[in-house]
Structures are given as C-alpha cells and as structure tokens.
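We store sequence with structure; for instance:
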Amino acid sequence: MLARVVENVYWLARYLERAENTARIVGVNTNLLLDLPGGIAPGWLPLVDISGNRAEFDAQYKASKGEEREVVQFLIADKNNPGSICSSLAAARENARTLREILPTEAWELLNQFFSDFSKDLSTGINKRTRFEFLKRIVVTLQTIAGMLDGTMNRNDAHTFMMLGRNLERTDMTSRIVDVRSAQLLPAETPELRPFETVQWMSVLKSLSGYQMYRLKMRTRVKREAVLEFLLRDDQFPRSCHFCLRQLESSLTPLPRSEGVNEVLETAARFIERAPLATLDQPGLHELIDRIQLNVNNVHNMIAEIYFPSGVVVGLPRMPSQSQSQRQSSLSFGEAAKS
C-alpha cells in the first residue's frame, strides 16, 4: 500500500474526529446556557483557546470581546479558520475523495452528501435556537460514518492508520474538552455559583456522550474528582485519554520501527495513571492537560517522521496545511517505514 495512502487515511480519521469533537465543544457551552439561571452566562472566548486557534481568531476579529456569535461563527463556519467544523469537513471530504478505491462506497457517499447539506445549512448552526439540533446532527452523522468505516474496512494498513488518527485526535480533543472546566467558563468562583458546579461537570460528560457510562461505571454523583478519573484514566470508556493511548499502542505494535513511539505512549499512559487527580487545583489540571497534549504532539511527530512520505513534523499537529499533509509519493508504506 502506498505511503501516501496511509497518510491520507490517517488525516481523514483525524479531520472527522476533529469536526465531531469541535461540535461537542461548542455544545458544552450551548447546553450550559440552558442549564444555568438567568444572569449567569458562560464565557465563549475560552473555547477559542481550547481549540488552539486564538491567533487566527484575534487576527480576524480585532478588538473582539469574544461574543457568542463571533466565537460560534469562527468555530463552526469560518473557512479562514483551519480548525473550524467547516474546514475540517472540507479536508475530510478531500481526503476521502482521493481514497475512494479503498473506502466503502456507502461511507464516501454519506460524507459527500452530508458536506453538501452542511454547507447549505450553516446559518442554522449559527442561530442560537436551532444550534443544538444542528450540532447533534453533525455528531450523529460523523459517528455513523465512523461506524461504516470500522465495520466494513479490511484490517490492513489503511485501517491501522485510521485507528491511529482517530485515537490520537480523540486523546487530544477529550483533554481539550476537560480543559473547558479549567478555562473558567463561568465567572470567578463565588458562593452563589457553587451549586452549579455539578451542572458544569455534567455538561462536560454529556459533551462526550459519557454521562450514562459515567453513572454505570462510577456509581456516584457527578463530582469533579470522579469525572476527571473517568475521562482521563478509565480503561473501559472509549473516549478516555488512557483508553485511547492504550489503543494507540495496540495499533502501533505490529508496525515496523514502532518501538520508539510506543515508549512515548507508555510514558504518557503512566503519567496519567500517576497524576494526583484528587488534589489537583485548577492550574494543576490545566498543566496536566498541557502535558497530555504535548505527548500527543510528540507521538504525531514520530509517526510522521517514520511512516509518512512527507515526513511532516509540526510544532502543534492541529491544522497542517494541505500541501504538507497530502503530498504525493510513489513510496510504498513498507519502503517509507524502512527509509
């Protein structure tokens, strides 16, 4: 299999996962608006920081105070923002188009049709009244596509790199969604806001479709320490950071020259296992998430150096340019791994 093919599959999975989870991040705040009392509104600018695109936002919305409509427009529909849902879906569609010979036809057709419908209905996502259903449709459709791919693709190199892309992006995005809480979405802590602490953590769980699984596994009320335990290091919930890291190890083990990457993954998994979640304050939690994202960055760079024809290494693997991530090559995957 061509090295450029497994690279494109890897990025297809990352873009699909990124679009889905960006919808989830916006949904965190949208749900909070419904659950909080009048007069208390969550901030929106922290979502831009969490997405890793603050510089792009400041360049486009100069002197902005981070109003809801501006942030929602930037994260959902802004074509100039390489991390918006619109940009991620466009990149995913382009990758899928080049992979039509190895992808299930049904998955390609659904993605192609959904991108067309999404582009027509963008105004629905910006509108506060219709945003929830719009975001829900994004999540459900992308989960359907992921299910089609996982349920019908041969278990070959293409599938292996799809799982690498999906789980690496999921680790990063789950950590960013957890960071929603440490980014101070609510105003500064005051006694009258303490009763809504549980509401906020419930929103984080629901944004990852993890509320029911949390109650089933943890068997306790929603509270900070237990939610962090569940989302960061549970070994059964498929969106927890620890679970995703172990899935990455499992995918990498059969590949040639994977020992160094697996060592980084093992270090990252042990770091999460040993983190003192019960005693972490908010700055400590933010630092922990930064460490997780740094490990994700390192793993991406090592995978790119070893297996991809472009050998792209970037400071932060959030939004690689098309020229970088889609460069053509006649090398086979095996030749790229040996070079």
In short: The first helix runs from residue 3 to 35.
